[in-house]
Amino acid sequence: MKKCIVFLVTLALCLGMLGCLAGPPEEELSDEEVVIALIEAFKQGDYEGLQPYIDADNPLHLFFAGIDETTGGDMAPAYRRLHEQLKGSITYTAEAVEGKEAWGTVSVTISMPDYSASIYDAMAAALTDHVENGSFALHDMPAWMLLGAEGEQGTAQETFELHVGSRDGNMVMDTNTNRQFFAMLCGGLKPYLKASITTCTFPDGSVWELLSQGDEIVAMVNTEAAAVPEGYAQAELDAMIQSYEETFAPVDGVFARAEVQEGLLYARLGVNMAEASSFALNNLGLISDRITAGSNGWLSLDSTISAFTREGAECVTETFKQEVE
To answer: Structure pTM?
Structure first.
């Protein structure tokens, strides 16, 4: 009997010690503490630390997958450089909105770098170089994206009313409800998180390079080559080249270059959809004839690939990183 009492006392002491070692139960974060924890984890590059507070469809998953060399591939240097520039320059305040506590509403004023213009300028410069020099610079998305991430930054400052909710017992910031905040947190990279370059090569040797953001084509270059006809004088070739380039010169966002190299006449046509109008492209026969507008009001990559494939083209799409589901 005495041994049993000693055993029970010992067991009670052990359980008590375990309880002390375990410490008090973890307290649930307040709504503003959730927002602060997410922003701080982002600044520190702590992907695991912010995952509990975001949905599966949040753009930050793609952002951090791009930073990781194993998934970011050739794009990782650009993603890492951008995050390095962002993390040390983010300032913010966060506080619960009085009277809206029941809805988990948090007022956040955040100021941080924005590389939207720099990335766009790098892309536009690559597009121009691709057309003018035949460099295929637009295709090298990792290179011009890195230049954009190292370019001159803008500054974005916004005040958001963010919403923190409970899902499956966890405190989560809904992606759609807070989409503008998450887009801003990406520092200008959000439109390019699903960017790709598609190369379509036709049986006659002509090539289309299509830069897309998701399904939306945002820039493209067409390159065609033909043998210089025998007997053509240089003056005739010069007139032909001039006529080709002048045809597109008045059209905003569309530019062309032609040149003779090693007995071949190369003609290159570039389109920047941020500057070109669909009406002008339609008049040139680019939309109605080959490039296909989708039901969402933009030039659709999927529809265009289907149309090109029917014409006998072989199309290859590259993201320069490992695909993330």
So the answer is: 0.86
